[in-house]
């Protein structure tokens, strides 16, 4: 059996049954990354010694019958903004070249305690500030369907490490869609938990008011198990999840104002969810439109406030399009920033009131398909317009403060997202598990 194509949870069950050796499996993932022509485009650096030591320990625990949980011994990748003790963590930027933290990020500490194997650090958009996944200064990972297409960002390598058989799952971050977009464009499940549901200690920030850590996986079960591991808690029960009697709201205009291919995929997904018993209707929430049109500077201002001095000390070391995006926050006034946050809190309350009668809100994960990397490289205007469109739908979730899961629709590089109110992480995962079965 080719265990490298199996879900993290299935691998964990295989280890528990004695069918999978964590040492051999870890070596297989490492070898795949080290020998593949795409390995250096996916991994910024491997942690071979650590991985093999952790795999040996997991092997010994399995033999002794003292495994620490379902995922003990399962090898996964980590986006290069999660601190790893003694190993460079550079967030895809030459500005942070040679940055070596002294300790692991808290979520990585939790995963290590649970017995997971750390394979290495994956490439990403520079400082996590783009949804396309393009990074000419370090590497642009290949899309699962065509190496010439954008992989989605900013957790680009986290997604492609899974689709190219170089990890059982990837851990990424999501500030405006950076988990959900690469998951959708590479046919994976991506989970953006509620903001601050998982610790961000030891995670290189972009805009801490929106930053969120989470998994990119083959299945909803994997997302639930990794969410539990990262939070040092118990996984939600997904057994016998059903869509019968559930009520879903399709959020207009973000569900309809999309390009043809993702639009057709979304409609196909909606029909299958309806056939599985979900009651689905379309709604409009004007407050969401207002938030989307007026609050972009919350991102740019906080991002520039975090990184402005570092950027201006060495501006030529940055990919100019990402640098320009940061600089959009340079002149945002503090009173305007405060007033925008106050208004956003009002708009969030209105969104929750408008959607309170539904189990989840549905939206196409991305309004577009993966664009060609060469064209993005050569055309500044195209890069800007595609990046904004790419992030448009996912940013709804971050602005409204929800938790969200993107699922593959079955049509390549398209996803459907389920969104639930903040704190309802277990519920959105359970709904997603039922939707996953309907969509399969």
What does this structure look like?
By secondary structure, the chain is α/β, with parallel strands linked by helices. It folds into 2 domains: 3-231, Amidase signature (AS) domain (Amidase signature (AS) enzymes), CATH 3.90.1300.10; 247-295 and 318-439, Amidase signature (AS) enzymes, CATH 3.90.1300.10. The protein has helices at 8-17, 22-35, 39-42, 48-64, 106-113, 156-163, 180-185, 220-231, 260-275, 286-294, 296-313, 320-327, 334-355, 373-378, 380-400, 425-439; strands at residues 43-46, 75-79, 117-122, 170-173, 189-192, 213-217, 247-252, 279-284, 360-364, 403-408, 415-420. Strands 1-3-2-4-6-5-10-11-9-7-8 form an 11-stranded mixed beta sheet, with helices on both faces. A hairpin with a 6-residue loop joins strand 10 (403-408) and strand 11 (415-420). Helix 2 (22-35) runs antiparallel to helix 4 (48-64), helix 5 (106-113) crosses helix 8 (220-231) and helix 11 crosses helix 12. The chain is globular. The chain starts with 7 loop residues before the first helix and ends with a helix.
Task: Write a concise keyword list for the protein shown above.
alpha/beta; Amidase signature (AS) enzymes; globular; 44% helix
| Structural Rg | 20 Å
What is the CATH third-level topology name of the largest domain? Amidase signature (AS) enzymes
Helix count, per DSSP? Answer: 16
Largest sheet: 11 strands, mixed
Distance between the termini: 22 Å
Q: How many beta strands in the DSSP annotation?
A: 11
């Amino acid at each position: 059996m080719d265990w490298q194509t199996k879900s993290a949870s299935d691998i964990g069950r295989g280890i528990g049954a004695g069918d999978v050796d964590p040492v051999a499996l870890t070596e297989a993932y490492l070898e795949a990354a080290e020998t593949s022509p795409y390995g250096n485009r996916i991994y910024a650096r491997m942690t071979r010694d650590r991985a093999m030591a952790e795999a040996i320990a997991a092997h010994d625990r399995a033999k002794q019958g003292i495994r620490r949980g379902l995922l003990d011994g399962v090898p996964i990748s980590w986006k290069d903004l999660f601190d790893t003790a003694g190993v460079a963590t550079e967030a895809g930027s030459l500005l942070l070249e040679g940055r070596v933290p002294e300790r692991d990020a808290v979520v990585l500490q939790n995963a290590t305690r649970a017995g997971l194997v750390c394979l290495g650090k994956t490439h990403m958009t520079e400082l996590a500030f783009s949804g396309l996944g393009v990074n000419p200064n370090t590497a642009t990972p290949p899309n699962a369907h065509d190496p010439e297409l954008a992989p989605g960002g900013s957790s680009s390598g986290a997604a492609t490490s899974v689709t190219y058989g170089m990890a059982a799952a990837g851990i990424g971050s999501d500030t405006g869609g950076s988990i959900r977009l690469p998951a959708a464009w590479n046919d994976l499940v991506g989970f953006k938990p509620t903001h601050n549901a998982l610790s961000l200690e030891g995670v290189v920030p972009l805009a801490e008011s929106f930053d969120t850590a989470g998994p990119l996986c083959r299945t909803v079960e994997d997302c639930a198990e990794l969410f539990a591991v990262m939070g040092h808690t118990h996984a939600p029960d997904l057994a016998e999840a059903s869509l019968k009697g559930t009520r879903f709201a399709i959020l207009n205009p973000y569900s309809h104002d999309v390009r043809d291919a993702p639009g057709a995929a979304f409609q196909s997904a909606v029909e299958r969810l309806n056939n599985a018993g979900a009651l689905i209707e379309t709604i409009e929430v004007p407050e969401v439109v207002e938030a989307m049109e007026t609050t972009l500077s919350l991102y740019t201002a906080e991002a520039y406030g975090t990184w402005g001095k570092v950027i201006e000390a060495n501006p030529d070391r940055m990919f100019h399009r990402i640098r320009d995006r940061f600089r959009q926050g340079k002149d945002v006034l503090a009173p305007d920033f405060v007033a925008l946050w106050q208004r956003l809190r009002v708009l969030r309350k209105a969104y929750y009131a408008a959607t309170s009668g539904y189990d989840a809100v549905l939206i196409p994960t991305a309004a577009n398909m993966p664009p060609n990397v060469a064209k993005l490289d050569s055309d500044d205007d195209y890069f800007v317009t595609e990046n904004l469109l790419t992030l448009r739908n996912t940013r709804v979730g971050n602005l409204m403060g929800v938790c969200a899961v993107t699922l593959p629709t079955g049509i390549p590089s398209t996803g459907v997202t389920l969104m639930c109110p903040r704190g309802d992480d277990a519920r959105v995962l359970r709904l997603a598990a039922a939707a996953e079965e309907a969509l399969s």
